[in-house]
Amino acid sequence: MASDELAKAVEPRKKGNVKYASICAILASMASVILGYDIGVMSGAAMYIKKDLNITDVQLEILIGILSLYSLFGSFAGARTSDRIGRRLTVVFAAVIFFVGSLLMGFAVNYGMLMAGRFVAGVGVGYGGMIAPVYTAEISPAASRGFLTTFPEVFINIGILLGYLSNFAFARLPLHLGWRVMLAIGAVPSGLLALLVFCMPESPRWLVLKGRLADARAVLEKTSATPEEAAERLADIKAAAGIPKGLDGDVVTVPNKEQGGGELQVWKQLILSPTPAVRRILLSAVGLHFFQQASGSDSVVQYSARLFKSAGITDDNKLLGVTCAVGVTKTFFILVATFLLDRAGRRPLLLISTGGMIVSLICLGSGLTVAGHHPDTKVAWAVALCIASTLSYIAFFSIGLGPITGVYTSEIFPLQVRALGFAVGVASNRVTSAVISMTFLSLSKAITIGGSFFLYSGIAAVAWVFFFTCLPETRGRTLEEMGKLFGMPDTGMAEEAEDAAAKEKVVELPSSK
């Protein structure tokens, strides 16, 4: 029995027809393009914004990094919105809000108006960053979930590449016009997304939470290899939602919904008084998101033009050309990762990725230190080392830590707290991103730009130890089986919630007929 369970955990289930699920995942993941585009376009637009608006380095790094803090509003609002009105309509919210933000930034006449546009766009980014991985994980069958849930990260990288290409395409426009066009054109993909969302079905797990079993069954039949697999997935989701096995029908009353105390109960289960298993899940998600950003990924991507300039490349066209190479590298290796996650597993890729990032950061710090010691001369080998190390770092990040963070976080949380749990993870990610982005220029002045990357390499080393000791392999497991990996009883969170509710003498479950 034990050997059978072990084999089941190690070997992915046989893949079925994932075409429909893939289309759904692609449509939902387009919400991630808006975050990627902003990251990429600001890398080049920042140079022109500084010249046109005559702002300081401190104002510039705040402008770049503040969007991550603003996105917190969208992340937590998105968790609440998605639980109330559904995952699909939440994607529409993300697209519309970012659309408005892009236009505000594009038509900004001063620094204050630009910051206002960043706030609106940041809320849209928070919505999109939270909902795309959650929806994709919930609609994907276990055998192909690793492949499909990398799509949000793939589209982030496509967005980054589009941002770099936008920099390159509009750099020759007049100074006052170029950066505004770069920012305003971000409204195009968000507008397209708002229209395409209505081709997507609703998440089957959200439908079950609302008692709409017939609708959930219809979606599962389209995303499963066989009717038997669809029935099995529906039974697992019903159990996770606290719906008795014998309770069936097109629309049913969900007992756990009334008993759980609504949103307060969700916060209690996840934050205020979690079980040891849920606490471990939360720590894993928050740690994973923290280390993804604390290892310097945003510094490399958002300040790539400044980084290469410090290495000795001074021509604007060459700078933008090299940053485009960064975007191409990210996109290529994230596509490679999509095919490896369900073959190699999450854990091996994560450890290899982080190890490669450590070496790359040390080499990058060394190259920048040498270049910094020879400001009046161009050290060719140091320039080459900086370019190679940057591309190496991007490749290792994109093949592991980049995509796995969203994949892993979207699949480990129990159903009742999944939206809030992912929002907490994204909050950790965005706060860390904001701190890194808004301190990089100041940190570089304090300990040199090379020293900054030596610091990031030390953080990445701590991350490797955390991943090795705290994160179990999840490949091939259904979402409803994840709790067992973190010590949750087979009965799952639904019965844990029932036991806790009974102790507190909350309202009894309504009888089912």
Summarize the structure.
This protein is mainly alpha-helical. The chain has helices spanning 2-10, 19-29, 33-53, 57-85, 87-106, 111-139, 145-148, 151-170, 175-184, 187-196, 204-209, 213-223, 227-241, 255-259, 262-272, 276-294, 297-302, 304-311, 316-344, 346-373, 380-399, 401-412, 418-447, 449-470, 482-485, 492-503.
Describe this structure in words.
Helix 5 runs antiparallel to helix 6 (111-139) and helix 6 packs across helix 23. This protein has 513 residues and is mainly alpha-helical. The longest helix has 30 residues, at 418-447. The chain has helices at residues 2-10, 19-29, 33-53, 57-85, 87-106, 111-139, 145-148, 151-170, 175-184, 187-196, 204-209, 213-223, 227-241, 255-259, 262-272, 276-294, 297-302, 304-311, 316-344, 346-373, 380-399, 401-412, 418-447, 449-470, 482-485, 492-503. It starts with a helix and ends in a 10-residue tail after the last helix. It has two domains: 15-253, MFS general substrate transporter like domains (Growth Hormone, Chain: A), CATH 1.20.1250; 262-484, Growth Hormone, Chain: A (Up-down Bundle). It is built from 26 helices and no strands. Residues 1-17, 257-261 and 491-513 have low confidence and may be disordered. GO terms for molecular function: carbohydrate transmembrane transporter activity; symporter activity. Residues 24-475 form the Major facilitator superfamily (MFS) profile domain.
